[in-house]
Amino acid sequence: MASRRILITGLSTYWGGRLAQALEDDDEVEAIIGIDRTPPKVELDRTEFVQVADHHTLIRRIVQGAEIDTVVDTRLVTDSSLTSPRKAHENNVIGTMNILAACSGADTTVKKVVFRSSADFYGAEQDDPAFFTEDMRRPHPARTPIERDIVEAERAVADFAAKHPDSTVTVLRFAHGLGPELRTSYSRLLGLPAVPMILGFDPRWQFVHEDDIAGALHHAVTHELPGIYNVAADGVLALSEIAGLLGKPLLPVLPPWGTELALPIARRLGVHIVPEMVNHLRFGQGLDNRRLKATGYRLRYTTRETVEKLREHQRVEPLLRDRSGQYRYEREVEDFLRRSPSVRRETERDESAGAN
């Protein structure tokens, strides 16, 4: 099914904004509507923004009124540093159920749902396989509130898919992303002068570049991809290799036992490690990405190249940060400049200058 009228939930997130920008360049897309509680943080041209909460009756009215055929849900919070456990649960579980309810019903126009999930669905344990495939179940119970949210949200999506066999339901489980525009607990950890680690552990980490995050979402919208797909770059790196590529020393500041008890002390030292990251610092994780590549998507960056790109950004970031008058996108200002009759266009300025 060709996606022509698309609703993006979580437009103010990095993932929602980047996807909207990519879809705006697609001439076959007739309409792009984004919803969120807060305005988008990136410049958008033909994407319509509706400020609305995740309430299924309100979203259903938008879906029906705009005859939406594809819904892309990018709202999932996978970083507990961003909000409280209660608010994360409301967004991740209750919000997902409301989005799916808005897509349901005998009279629905929705024929495709794309759900952005996370590799944290699998967890990270000592006896994990070298690479998780999409067919593998989570081998251990979820340890953290965020992991429990992800498992519960995916369960709701699976129930929706079973009840709507005529719809294409795609779940994308993303590895942790890195890139100049992404701000996550992992990017902050790797942005420290030295890379913290747990004494005696050198875990394998795998990333996905921010461009491949946007690319995979766009690929899922423009192709028929029923089922679950891991989205991760080729290759894994030991944490010591990552530190070496970044040109930083390793700092074994966390004890192998009672690690969670040491986190408050680490925070006072400026090392912010969220609970869902602790086992990644012990055991790491690997994802098998062959199913996604079999659909025709070609990842632009390997894990090594993603880290190298981060290193390039870290080198120039202090210079960019020191610039005065740096541009910041504000939707209301851009709308005024784009649409207000009071703003003189460039051609009007040229005509005025010629007359003088």
UniProtKB/TrEMBL annotation:
Signal peptide: none
Organism domain of life: Bacteria
Ranges where the NAD-dependent epimerase/dehydratase domain occurs: 6-232
Gene3D superfamilies: NAD(P)-binding Rossmann-like Domain (3.40.50.720)
Pfam families in alphabetical order: Epimerase (PF01370)
Transmembrane segments annotated in the record for this chain: none
Protein name: NAD-dependent epimerase/dehydratase domain-containing protein
